[in-house]
Write a structure and sequence with these properties.
about 290 residues, alpha/beta, Rossmann fold, 2 domains, 6-stranded parallel β-sheet, 5-stranded mixed β-sheet, binds NADPH dihydro-nicotinamide-adenine-dinucleotide phosphate
């Protein structure tokens, strides 16, 4: 067996679409010397064996890895100091890059994948953004979203204190370092549901679902009135059928509705570029993936 130079590590991993995506990217550069012989495979790590698995891959000459559920925080710790700014802000690593001196750098391309996908549909500068959820995916998205200079960014979570914690830990230091006064606000879902009058509700131009509610088929307790005219609704989840959040947005009259398949392909494109220095075209791969699911 030829040893893979790139892998995606997770548990479970058999469902991962990353090998298909990276094979499609590599095919775009078939004649390029960096990419000739590009081998990308799935690597199952035992739940208590991430470090041993990634170390074994590294010792065998691995050059790069994607890390997925449930190991992104463990990968962050495995890397130690060599983290990009966005990985440090995310507190999680989804991409490991072998450096010229043999050490490993940890990056997080999830938020960049989200932003590049959003930018295919809407300019984020000057927009009022609402991020729903305060888990790992929301944390990874926060800094890349702030860097787009929206008019404001609010984070709403079922557990409001976690939204506040996210803003304290990620947004506050960034705002301080940049010297910007961009308004950020932590909300509970109660703040998004005014069943009687809807008069106290703020409106948002971009509403991003980073909760895992769609995974269990649940709707979010939010009022239709939070969507501004011409708003865009984005669900990080994706699937063959419309997600519950996007169905909710459609019923609220939102015309622009986008699921997270483009984020998945986008984060992979960022990783591919980190490893090879080559920027793959996302659109044809996204279209092909859409036909596969
Ligand atoms: P986490 O488990 O880290 O966080 C889950 C979040 O969802 C928390 O904020 C939690 O709130 C909230 N939540 C869970 N259930 C409900 C519910 N029934 N109603 C309201 N809120 C709920 O998950 P991740 O952040 O890792 O993932 C979130 C979503 O993003 C998933 O659907 C995942 O598939 C998707 N994702 C997509 C990617 C892509 O490439 N397209 C990449 C990464 C993630 P609380 O704090 O109150 O518990």
């Amino acid at each position: 067996m030829i040893h893979p130079t790139y892998v995606v590590i997770g548990n479970p991993i058999a469902h991962s679409k990353s090998p298909q995506i990276h094979a499609a990217f590599a095919a775009q550069f078939a004649d390029h010397p960096y990419v000739a012989g590009f081998i990308y495979q799935q690597l199952l790590a035992p739940l208590d064996g991430f470090s041993a698995t990634v170390q074994g891959f590294a010792d065998a000459g691995g050059r790069g890895a994607n890390v997925t559920v449930p190991f992104k925080e463990e990968a962050f710790r495995w890397v130690g100091e060599q983290l990009t700014e966005r990985a440090a802000a995310a507190g999680a690593v989804n991409t490991l890059v072998r450096q010229a001196n043999g050490t490993w750098q940890g990056d997080n391309t999830d938020g960049a994948g989200l932003v590049t996908d959003l930018l295919r549909h809407i300019n984020l500068r000057g927009q009022r953004i609402l991020l729903l959820g305060a888990g790992g995916a929301a944390r990874g998205a926060l800094l890349p979203l702030l860097q787009q200079q929206p008019q404001s960014l609010s984070v709403a979570n079922r557990t409001q204190s976690k939204a506040q914690q996210l803003l304290d830990e990620v947004a506050a230091p960034w705002r301080h370092a940049q010297g910007v006064s961009l308004p950020v606000l932590a909300l509970g879902f109660d703040d998004l549901l005014d069943e009687v009058t809807a008069t106290n509700l703020s409106q948002y131009d971009v509403v991003i679902n980073a909760t895992s509610a769609s995974l269990s088929g649940e709707r979010l307790p939010i009022s239709d009135a939070i969507f501004a005219p011409n708003a865009l609704a984005y669900d990080m989840m994706y699937g063959k059928n419309q997600t519950p959040f996007l169905a909710q947005a459609r019923e609220a009259g939102v015309q622009q509705r986008v699921d997270g398949l483009g984020m998945l392909v986008g984060q992979a494109a960022e990783a591919f570029e980190l490893w090879t220095g080559l920027r793959p075209e996302v659109a044809p791969v996204l279209q092909w993936m859409r036909e596969q699911i």
